[in-house]
Design brief:
A: 503 residues; alpha/beta; Rossmann fold; 2 domains; six-stranded mixed sheet; 19 helices; B: 346 residues; mainly alpha; two-stranded antiparallel ribbon; 15 helices; 2 strands; 71% helix
Chain lengths: 503, 346
């Protein structure tokens, strides 16, 4: 088998963070290579280099034995590469057909004819077995997450590429759609396309791929023939240590209920009730788009609600604003660290003290000595690695940035902490430290509510697991009964019709 | 492709922290800031060139007149910097100045009380700022569009109440005369006014929680909101502060010219104030900028304008120079921010 793509010594850093270090990889035509690794291991960076979105710092890429340099995504497309994004950009005001053919609409006699484009889209959908899933005339804004994913996949395929990379394509798909997708991938493989398949889900890798390459902390941890390896071996390659070493959970007997949520209803969540006790870690699991982040934002008053109450220590928060939630003792670290939590141009000090400035002022003037002392204490407790607290926060690694975000809320001595994907984009070492901090916080009597998409993390952290699907809590699992399969079966849509009726 | 081929697309690596700052220059740069060092260098260069062409340039009289000339747009540039720090913009400041200038002169004329005229102007300014803030927040109108609309509306109001002509005569009133031409210890009162406003703005931004929250809102409004900062209150307050300073600028315009001016003397102040803020390094995306840098930029603009006049350059070229300077300032900023040249700029 000759290699279609040969990658040698690929290296890429972002400031102090090494996203990829000297990675070698080969993919042959007519092969499906699974690319495994935890969040932050470098999978996305590798895909973005292949798609031409990132330039490399060092290393070479050869296609069909010829070295290539991508100066932008058009270069990569011309080389026959398509990267199917995990969270696709769908143009809301265009139809499915137009979304699929975007950038190269099929014309008849040089004219755009709507019915013709839709007919061509229908043909392409039928060719890959997705004609049942989505119709060409549907508008982009009306698509479910699964349908969006299918549209994105079709976009990549209509141009007959020779190399296709899928970035966690199944995270929002139902079982039937997954089956259709796998059939499609095997179709591509049999036609001689080189396929790269990124996923977290161990069992499906064995179904779909021929070989697996594992990335860990930006380095290639190993390549295995899937016929000759086991799930356990792959997990060990991914994590670099036994999973059990990652998590330290000191169980404390949970006492009284601190956070009580009753019957929350809005555009995103449907009659959600839950409670978290002091010293307890409750994890909300579910698929992307299940409404978990929106639930968190509704609890803290950042999204408005049509019904429902939130109470801390039995006292209802009557004003539905983040400020009121904060004053009631809720701390909230949102999902998107850079977009929602950090002041990127400001120092570690400014970022840490952001939520406690009101406690650090005298006559509006910030008491700098006091601020320094508090911030230094937090930085030390959170083990933030920074040359100084005056360092601009954008210069720190993702893990250290995340510790600052957690520290910001710790500084307020909260009763409840809500952490949305606290380890996203964080390297393995920092992950273990963040888990340790969460454990420590819970053991001091804080009620912790975590949202996580990573099943090992869900299982490792939680005392109790709530699974959300389509804005509702579908089920509750105690730590002892929870398995990946149990969580997934609750997280997946029950059937198409159930989803229809929800919309 | 070898390792040397691609170093682009990684802006973070370029601004990596300077750990071995042995050279004196680096220390100076670190304390004063690259922005201010470049501004000072440009200022020195400009002064040298103009001074060598015209010996009158360095006379105290000329220097003080530069100071007085920059005061009105300087005041607006200081508050414009604060608005820009929030991540917004106020292009109605010039019209506001014209409107409050007319108000101050007309109220003074009808009451013969300078203090009432001035209070009326400040009140009108506050009202203008309140309108801007309310339209932006509750009308959900982009700040540029909102203040573009009020730029037209305020100017129209000024012309309606003044009948399009300059109004009143304040040249005989001692208070107005002092504001426009008075001196304290040989320093024109106008310059002192600018310094007071600049120092207050600087202290608020640098040392109080209000200032820190303004930087936070401009840097990341979501983070600020989730940290319990009442963003709306800050936006309204900052726009009202701009209105207040706009009122002050209107009063000073009246005092300098001796009458209320609906358009003359205030038109184009929005351009000058934004240019000064941008030249001073205030990021138009918000969250970055400082008053001392804006003051340096104000001086630079003042010297440039004075120099071009002294050198006998056709005054119409001054507008070209101001426009070019604004573009250059923003282009440099965007380059430094590592923006890629794809699509519309962020």
């Amino acid at each position: 088998m000759t290699s279609k793509v040969v990658i040698r010594g690929l290296t890429k850093s972002f400031g102090p963070v090494h996203a990829l270090r000297a990675v070698d990889l080969e993919v042959a035509s007519g092969e499906v290579l699974a690319l495994l690794g935890e969040n932050g291991a470098g999978k996305s960076t590798l895909l973005k280099i292949l798609s031409g979105d990132y330039a490399t710092d060092a290393g070479t890429i050869e296609i069909d034995g010829r070295p290539v340099v991508f100066r932008g995504s058009p270069d990569s497309k011309r080389a026959g590469i398509r990267v199917i994004a995990q969270e696709p950009e769908i143009l809301k005001h265009l139809s499915v057909a137009e979304n699929i053919f975007i950038g190269g609409l099929p014309l008849r006699n040089g004219l755009y004819i709507k019915s013709y484009v839709e007919q061509r889209a229908a043909e392409e959908l039928a060719r890959y077995g997705f004609e049942e899933v989505v119709s060409p005339a549907t508008m982009g804004s009306d698509l479910s997450p699964a349908q969006r994913q299918i549209v994105e996949i079709m976009r990549g395929l209509v141009v007959s590429p020779s190399i296709v990379a899928f970035d966690e394509p199944t995270s929002s798909l139902t079982e039937n759609e997954v089956t259709a997708l796998f059939r499609l991938i095997h179709q591509l493989r049999d036609k001689g396309v080189a396929v790269i398949y990124v996923s977290h889900r161990m069992h499906e890798i064995f179904d779909v791929a021929d070989r697996a390459a594992v990335l860990r902390d930006g380095q290639l941890a190993g390549v295995r023939d899937l016929a000759e390896t086991t799930e356990n071996e792959l997990v060990k390659l991914m994590v670099g240590r036994e999973l059990s070493e990652m998590f330290t959970r000191t169980r404390v007997e949970p006492s009284q209920v601190v956070l009580q949520v009753d019957g929350l209803v809005n555009e995103y969540v449907d009659d959600v009730s839950l409670s978290v006790r002091a010293g307890e870690v409750v994890v909300i699991a579910g698929l992307i788009g299940a409404g978990r982040s929106e639930l968190a934002r509704t609890i803290v008053g950042d999204l408005s609600r049509t019904a429902g109450t939130v109470a801390v220590d039995g006292i209802e928060i009557t004003s539905h604003t983040p400020r009121a939630a904060m004053n009631a003792g809720i701390g909230f670290a949102p999902e998107e660290r850079k977009a929602q939590a950090l002041l990127l141009k400001r120092s570690v000090r400014d970022n840490t003290s952001l939520a406690i400035l009101d406690r650090l002022t005298r006559m509006l003037f910030v008491r700098t000595a006091m601020e320094r002392e508090v911030v230094l204490g937090i930085v030390e407790r959170m083990r933030v690695r920074t040359p100084s607290i005056e360092q601009e926060i954008s210069k720190l690694s993702g893990g250290n940035q995340q510790k600052v975000v957690l520290g910001r809320w710790l500084a307020r001595k909260p009763k409840v902490l809500i952490l949305d994907e606290p380890t996203r984009g964080v390297d393995v070492g920092a992950k273990a430290e963040i888990y340790a901090v969460i454990d420590e916080l819970a053991s001091t009597g804080i009620a912790v509510l975590v949202i996580s998409s990573e099943l090992p993390e869900v299982l490792g952290l939680a005392d109790r697991i709530l699974v959300m699907q389509a804005g509702r809590i579908r089920g509750e699992l105690l730590r002892a009964d929870a398995t990946e399969e149990a969580i997934l079966s609750l997280a997946l849509p029950i059937s198409e019709s159930a989803e229809e009726s929800h919309r | 492709m070898t390792s040397k081929t691609v170093t682009e697309g990684n802006p973070a690596a370029e601004d990596a922290p300077v750990s071995t700052g042995r050279s004196v220059f680096r220390k100076v740069f670190a304390v004063v800031g690259v922005q201010n060092v470049s501004l000072l260098a440009a200022l020195i260069l400009l002064v040298t060139v103009i001074g060598s062409q015209d010996s009158n340039f360095f006379r105290a009289q000329n220097l003080l007149s530069i100071g007085s000339a920059v005061t009105i747009f300087g005041l607006l540039a200081v508050v414009q910097t604060v608005v820009i720090l929030l991540g917004a913009l106020d292009i109605s400041v010039g019209s506001m100045t014209g409107l409050t200038s007319v108000v101050s002169a007309m109220v003074f004329t009808s009451t013969s009380q300078a203090s009432i005229g001035m209070l009326a102007a400040l009140g009108a300014g506050l009202a203008c700022g309140l309108v801007n803030g309310l339209v932006i927040i509750y009308g959900r109108v982009n700040a540029v569009i909102a203040t573009l609309a009020t730029l037209a509306a305020f100017k129209g109001l000024a012309q309606i109440i003044s009948g399009g002509r300059s109004q009143g005569y304040t040249g005989t009133d001692p208070v107005f005369t002092f504001l426009g031409r008075g001196q304290i210890g040989g320093v024109p009162f106008l310059i002192i006014m600018l310094l007071i406003v600049a120092v207050v703005a600087h202290v608020v931004l640098r040392y109080t929680s209000i200032g820190r929250n303004i930087y936070a809102i401009g840097g990341n409004p979501t983070a600020a909101r989730l940290a319990g900062i009442s963003i709306n209150r800050y936006i309204i307050s900052v726009y009202m502060a701009v209105g207040f300073i706009g009122g002050l600028a209107g009063i000073l315009l009246t005092a300098r010219t001796g009458s209320g001016q609906p358009v003359s003397g205030s038109e184009g102040l929005e351009l000058e104030s934004i240019t000064a803020a941008a030249l001073g390094g205030a990021a138009l995306t918000g969250g970055k900028g400082a008053i001392p840098s804006t003051i340096l930029a104000i001086l630079l603009l003042g010297v440039l304008s004075n120099g071009l006049t002294v050198l006998g350059v056709n005054p119409f070229w001054q507008n070209v120079a101001k426009g070019a300077l604004l573009l250059v300032a923003v282009i440099l900023q965007q380059r430094r921010a590592g923006q890629r040249a794809v699509g519309l700029p962020a």
